[in-house]
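Posting here for the record, re: 1,6-di-O-phosphono-alpha-D-glucopyranose.
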Amino acid sequence: MKNITVDSHPFADQKPGTSGLRKKVKQFQQPHYLENFIQSVFNAIRGNDSFAEKALVVGGDGRFYNREAIQIIMKMALVNGFGKLIIGQNGLLSTPAASAVIRKYQAFGGIILSASHNPGGPDADFGIKFNTANGGPANEELTEAIFQHSLSIDRYQMVEAEDIDLSQIGSQQFDKLSVDIIDPVVDYADLMEQLFDFQRIRELLTSANFRMHFDAMNAITGPYAMTILEQKLGAPAGTVLRAEPLPDFGGDHPDPNLAHAQDLHKRLSGDHAADFGAASDGDGDRNMILGANFYVTPSDSLAVLAANATLVPGYKDGLAGVARSMPTSQAVDRVARQLNLPCFETPTGWKFFGNLLDAGKITLCGEESFGTGSNHVREKDGLWAVLFWLNILAVRGESVEDILKQHWDKFGRDYYTRHDYEAVTNDGAELLMTALREKTQTLAGLQLGSYQVESADDFAYTDPVDESISQHQGIRILMRGGSRIIYRLSGTGTEGATLRVYIESHETDINKQSEDPQNALSELIDLASQIAKINHYTGRNKPDVMT
Ligand code: G16
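Prediction output follows.
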């Protein structure tokens, strides 16, 4: 084994986005590209006392290039002074499980290899992010420091050595580095067992009157769902669909929405629909919830979990507070108001919940982008959300649809839709946002169709814990009565820019709560496209995706 220092040169495009660095696999495979980023992470975190004493957790969602990347990271970690690595068997760890493992073993932090719900394979996407000792994604200060290092890097260090076999659970020595290969599922499953009433969920899943399906989308949650749902909770064999994690996710898009979970959707539709359906994404942190012939929006899901939290053992004493990302609908705010709980509005990105969770200001949080989570880890957690729903269904003995309709009866329905314009030109997207930013100053008070603008701004957030300020987090147009139109550019795409337009409106009349959101919101949808001149700046007449 020989230590080597490799001369390199900076790449200008290693600025982490909403959730780490996401690029095409081919980009990561260029000579020095991955190594530069890893060395930049190590350079940015060096100087911390526990660098050598505590473990670094490493794992990923098993996508193409996962295995190669882990070998490179091990060889670099050794020369960079780490004393111990904890790695999921075969390099696998779901994102929430990685967070749980970092916390349980009080690790220094972790490197998670994933591009989340983006497709995998040699021509698709890969990603890397660094999580800190609390188990959560690095904050903006640290991601900026990593980026700055990446702009001036001229060398990196590693060893020349044979690859390590990651298939056997146990400890092994890689020169001075001790490497613990752990079962990726056990610690996470134990944590779920502490939070939820497994006995009651088992009774539900084994009863003749209840049928569920979970779509693992050939991604990382397959082994987790098999262990927890089928083995521990007794769900019938075949409950978990597409259970085997594949490097290219079977050629599909591991994104839990109706467009990409079509088989699941079919099983939850029609006269013979199953009672409950759920799916999780590439790295296991997102979730989609379905009832029989019924789709639950992520924003509503968060609100229902908050309203029913005390039915679940892990949350029986109530919640400290709740939080949602700014573009997420205001459904959870209404629950918080009724329960007299603090409710925080953060920018998009799970990293913004970290301080609130660490400070004990919130217990539950969520985002419109199919993410829900709690203080049990510092990532959103797909399977956790599914178990939370199952626990509520087991206790209430009602259908998903009934639970939602009662919820809307009490709090009103927040009609909600997100329209995505994908892979538009970066220039067009930037011009659109700049023009909108200027327009915010003239919109207040204007009557637009049946809506009157109350205020408009470019959302800025001051973290209530460390007072750090994050600006330019999305354009908000707030109407009298609570309707909103929000625009922002995605920070997770790997091709051009993606414009996201979020549209919502509150309906308290129970007789008007069963419309298709695209109809209920049609006037606001038209306004949204006129105000931003979407066609003018992007050349598009309609969105690529509507959720
Ligand atoms: C990531 C972040 C989420 C964010 C989502 C969408 O999720 O962790 O906080 O809401 O991206 O971000 P954007 O709108 O910028 O594309 P994931 O599941 O992709 O890691």
